[in-house]
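anyone seen this seq b4? input:
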Amino acid sequence: MAGEVFISYSQPDRDCAFELVARLEGEGINCWIAPRDIAPSADWAAEIMDAISAARVMILVFSASSNQSPQVRREVERAVHKQLSILPFRVEDVLPSKSLEFFLSTQHWLDAFPPPREPHYARLCAYLKPQLAAEPIPPSPIVGRTAGGAATYPFDISQLQHIERQLAGYIGPLARHLVKTTALRAAGVDDLVSRLATELDSEPQRREFAQRCKP
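predicted toks r here
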């Protein structure tokens, strides 16, 4: 069953996550959380990806544990790719790791410490209700320059796809999101490649990436 709110959490925060779901659903907010909402014998990964695609908001129960969880990172990456609103619900006073910082640095955060957590749950419910009551905004696709001159980027789709493929060879699926968001700020192809190269770990990799991006 699809839910308006997808709950992302790491296993050590299970009790908090399910307590949060009970509180939200008590307020009439429909949630999806694993493993409760995964059908028996279903493909676990596919169910999670489908649930993220169907949701309107992701609540990330953020802690030191979720900060280091590869599964949480994959869920957040998927949510960003689907242009899903992400709300980190910080249950511990920790900063996001480098792998999550890129996705979460511009998000609105809610702190859920110190205990007790009930006032923080109430504040979360009050925040979510008007967000979910508003009409959903359809995602905007990446488009290139049109014949009429209206353009979102100073280059075309084929250029973006070529650069994305090259970057994916170094950092994997994250490349799509990086190319999309960085292109919004880039002045041209050279500027885009230069900005993306800073995401790579070494100078040889940056030079190699720039070379591969040339037409």
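Residues 5-133 form a domain with the Rossmann fold fold (CATH 3.40.50.10140). Strands lie at 5-8, 31-32, 57-62, 85-90, 110-111. kinda curious what u guys think
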